[in-house]
Amino acid sequence: MTVLRNPNVRHGALIAATTLAVAAVIVVPDSRPAVAAAVHSTEYPGRTIGSGGYGYIGQFGVNNAVSTPAPFDFYFPYGISVAGDKIYVADSGLAPREVGSQDAGHSLQAFTLTGKPGLDGIAYTTNGEWTVKTHQTEPNPQDLVRSDLILAGDPEVRGHRGVATDADGNVYVVTSNSAPFIKKYSPAGVELARWGAPGVSSDPARMTWPVGIAVDADGDIYVTAEGYAAVVVFDSSGNLRGRYLGAVTPDQPITAPGRLNSPQSIAIDRTGGGIYVGDIYAGGRQGKIHKLRVNKAAGLPATPENPNGWAWSVDTSFGTGGAVNAGPFSSVMSLQVDQANGDVLSVLGSGGIARRTSAGANITTIGSVSGNVHDEGRTGTVRGMAVDARGFVYATTQQNTSASNTRSIVQIFALTPSPLTGLTATPGPESVTLNWAASAVGHGQADVLDYVVERSTDGGATWVTMPQEARSTATTRVITGLAPGTETQFRVRAFSEAGSGDPATAAAVPEVVIEPTPTPTPTEPTPTPTPTDPSPTPTPSPTDPTPTPTDPTPTETAGPVLPSAGPTSSGTPSTDPGGHGGLPGTGSAGVPLLAGAAMLLLIAGVWIRTRRRDA
């Protein structure tokens, strides 16, 4: 099997290029990432502050010291292997020399990753804060995995240690307390083969206290035999392929690279071909990581212990002459290679995980040995470790290796975000607009959940978080309510479930708000009315000052009846009920003439009667 490696994939490196948008106005920019080492947060256990560090993003499993464990029950989780979305965990139980029930544990469990570590069940809220818990009694607190299989209770399968998978998904597990030592299972848990025994010293395939196991690109199985400082190689059916005897180098001192002491762990770079073997502290010699190589096409004469004529060598480009010291009194309990970039991860007996380049240079550490026993991210005792295709690290974690152990879980770690870039600050009236480049997610990094903005008005001596109601991955933000005319510094950093990245900084001077004098808005003048000819005032017709008499209805009388012409109570002449002031059917202008004519006729009639009577 050939595995292609992208040379651009590095811890925190980015595969995809990003385009940085630069604002039109940049005031006092300083987008250089802060140079600071990542540190573990004391306020939020498990989280790391600063780029290039690892932080906690999830866990599963619960301590349960019962004879036959149920799914998610671990006593002493040891080896772990991740293949795609499948996770296999080997539980060693108590060793025969330890006090307590030795029936607990001893299981091989399979899980399927159903959730998204770093996105599902997250503790991150916003404004750079997490809600952390201990999860002591929660077997699957983030709901990340599903239990698929548990193999337990077989008295002939005891003391599970290392576990590995091949390209076909088959599972190989080392059971150190029961021979045959190597068991092979199908992905469904069906046993396909078992082999390996202590044997006698003349048996080239013998194994004494096997612990570590790994599979190379050809499908060959490598097992460490701690009892006699060897690496024994089998094919997938258990046939001997070769053997490396680390102690048989009489021309080199006992501390020389390649001189194995008590090999405990092994990992293989399937692309680069390097074979890493971890020694534990024993016999006064500190633990080491050795880097070996094997030439399967060397064509050496075949022997019982080397039936295929392989040639082994020490890779002197690693560390110092081919080895790296693990530290005083330290043991290399587990080894893994990140197949994406060739980095080597090692579990130290003192707790924690170290990450190195393929040349042995130290990069960073994972986990913390301080804090409370059940804190998120605490790695007081780690026995197994694996790296998935995305670069997340899985670590089997215990409180200790005695019967008093109360912590038995698998923890998941991811890299913190990369340093922020492209930050610009554009001033406005009592405000500043910030823009920055999106923080791309590289190999090993958890997804970015939020960007947090801080400001300082004292040259960076103190910083104040600019709070927001909910987390946001927007790459622009307007900060208002700032003191005008005062230089204000800003820093922005990306946050994920694992922690925060290094910030970028920029400064700007908010502008003074000047209230303009309002200018009257011109209005249309009110038009002057065009003069018109006034309506002529009607001239009243002259009226006879003599009161107008009422025209009486003629009455048969002996003499003339004088009309009543007295004024009305209002002092004005009486008018007809029609309101015309004259006779019915006549216009108002003709009323005086008619009245006068009627009076003359009346007078004339009276005069004529009088003359007749006199005659």
TrEMBL record:
Gene3D superfamilies: Immunoglobulins (2.60.40.10), TolB, C-terminal domain (2.120.10.30). Residues 497-586 are annotated as: Disordered. The keyword Membrane applies. Residues 553-577 have a biased composition (Low complexity). Keywords: Carbohydrate metabolism, Glycosidase, Hydrolase, Membrane, Polysaccharide degradation, Transmembrane, Transmembrane helix. The keyword Transport does not apply. Residues 416-517 form the Fibronectin type-III domain. Residues 517-552 have a biased composition (Pro residues). It comes from the Bacteria. The chain crosses the membrane at residues 589-608. Pfam families: fn3 (PF00041). One of its GO terms (biological process) is polysaccharide catabolic process. One of its GO terms (molecular function) is zinc ion binding. PANTHER family: E3 UBIQUITIN-PROTEIN LIGASE NHLRC1-RELATED, PROTEIN LIN-41. This is Fibronectin type-III domain-containing protein. The lineage of its organism: Bacteria, Bacillati, Actinomycetota, Actinomycetes, Micrococcales.
